[in-house]
Amino acid sequence: xxxxxxxxxxxxxxxxxxxxxxxxxxxxxxxxVLPGQFFHIRCxxxxxxxxxxxxSLSYTQKEEGFIVLVYRVTGQGTEFLSxxxxxxxxxxxxxxxxGFEVKADHQRVALVGGGIGIAPLVELAGVYRQRxxxxxxxxxxxxxxxxxxxxxxxxxxxxxxxxxxxxxxxxDLLMQHLKEQRPSxxxxxxxxxxxxxxAQIAGDNSVSCQVSLEQRMACxxxxxxxxxxxxxxxxxxxxxARVCKDGPVFWSEEVCWDE
Amino acid sequence: xxxVDLGVNIAGLKLKNPVxxxxxxxxxxxxxxxxxxxxxxxxxxxKGLTLxxxxxxxxxxTVETPAGMLNSVGLQNPGVDYFLEKELPRLLEKEICVIxxxxxxxxxxxxxxxxxxxxxxxxAVELNLSCPNVKEGGIAFGLNPNSVYDVTxxxxxxxxxxxxxxxxxxxxxxxxxxRAAKEGGGDAVSLINTLLAMEIDIWSRKPVLxxxxxxxxxxxxxxxxxxxxxxxxxxxxxxxxxxGGILDWQDAVQFLLAGAKAVAIxxxxxxxxxxxxxxxxxxxxYARQQGFLAVEDMVGALxx
Lengths: 259, 304
Hints:
The complex is a heterodimer. In chain A, 18% of the residues lie in helices and 35% in strands. Chain A is α/β, with parallel strands linked by helices. Chain A folds into 3 domains: 5-96, Elongation Factor Tu (Ef-tu), domain 3, CATH 2.40.30.10; 100-212, Nucleotide-binding domain of ferredoxin-NADP reductase (FNR) module (Rossmann fold); 214-259, Dihydroorotate dehydrogenase B (pyrk subunit), domain 3, CATH 2.10.240.10. In chain A, strand 1 and strand 2 form a beta hairpin. In chain B, 31% of the residues lie in helices and 18% in strands. Chain B has a single domain, classed as TIM Barrel. In chain B, the strands form 4 sheets. An 8-stranded parallel β-sheet of chain B has the order 3-16-15-10-9-8-7-4. A 4-stranded antiparallel β-sheet of chain B has the order 5-6-14-11, with no helix packed on it. Chain B is globular. Chains A and B meet through strand 13 and strand 14 of A and strand 5, strand 6 and helix 8 of B.
């Protein structure tokens, strides 16, 4: 039977303005969590904030039994998380949802991340290593670059203000890349507008593409139908899928991007 | 140590304990069945069913608010026939008391759904007369005593299964509505459904929910629910199922003392998947400590 886990905080430190890296000792979980899956975390010692907050796995440290979650402080839940210290216990449900479809026969893959959406790509970069070309987009300040570069030698950076790497959108870098190479698949995580553009580029170049979506969640396990997003099924019929249970990773052509 | 009798009789059903799940928070049991054996529950009240499948409302459908949350799922469900064919058999493989929550666009639809459920293994039917998130049906029936009476009476004529009438709190006089359910032949009432509510994002200047309005649930509504349960249980001779922001066993005990014969757990499932089980254990322990031999002895045992 599944149960909520009580995990010890090993480290919780800011890695950029408003962005934190939370390391948890997670025996029993670090072995089975897949890139793209998330954890549903109780953000308060007592009753409030009420609902759990979904946070994706950034990467595992398997020798030590650690999982690392990287989050941006955006409200009461993540505010609470940012206050955690060494030795605190956290109520964690998961791993939940479907991760990215990792396949041995993917010769070359492109990973595209925007902002905090870069976090889940770190574990994925560790799976594909030299086979991955990573494209990381930021507004201004970068983070997780070292972690990405340790795993994959081919990391390109775009910043909107031009302070690091290419000045402009990360999707420009992807387009450039596709003129030179044809990856087996594109994996993307980031703001919806970015994902929509990545999906378009993937479609134009006939490269299959998976995206990790975000939505406000309540139960996190598929029961409440609160985190729905519009998708098309195989026959093209529009329906709502659960981001928590049917996703958070979807095929880009499934998603109804204009809703 | 003496053993507490947790069983309750409600609407002709003999429940092994007074703790159910609230419709719409528990799907068809599959997801939470991965956390514990559903046989431990007094009853499973499944996701609201309609005659035809419904896609539901546009996202976002949920948002957290102070001590609570809003939802505007809009009765997304695969329809009663799918439920009977695909979901119910799985539940009935075990000793689970299944209560089907149903919603119709009009009285005839409620009757048609009831007729489909009548030959099935569901133990009882809960009439959703109180969903705030759909345009037709749902709450439209729950605000007016005449329509509550009418739909309850008509559905009762369609079968022999016990009928529970789920009431909306968005009314002036909850007792008047509950009386209409009783006079229409309802075997029990369950209350409360969610309170109609909204939340605005001041930066986009848009409502947070795709459907603009949604239903408020969670601890924020508990005192309102408790007051309404107390009023109805005090005024009428009809079993009451207490629902509304029950997060732990202490909350559940309050509802039993206020006169509810059973309770249903909703939003708490999202916070703690094991909440219903912990609540059953907590009620038992409280009863033992307080010297109640049976949970039914606690019902309405409020000191004046």
